Amino acid sequence: MQITVQLPDDLAEHEHPDREALEALVIAGYSSGALSAKQARLLLGFETRFELDDFLYTHHVEAGSYGLEQFRQDLTAIGKMDEDEREKRSA
Asked: Which position has the higher pLDDT, 31 or 47?
């Protein structure tokens, strides 16, 4: 699929406006959790996860964004660990 975006003149005058727009889209999508690491890597045309990690580091994007769903899963896991620990103590 191809998407066409109209850029303001000042951005269109940059050396590589198409790449800048794509990178901004990937950064926002990855940071919000809308894009997985694999999706981000493929959109940017990188062959390895190392290339993606380097890109994210260079652009000050925390690799492995931590979203709400991951937080909920961690809370559930912590609750289970606490429950297991209480059972061990009472046994």
From this structure: 47
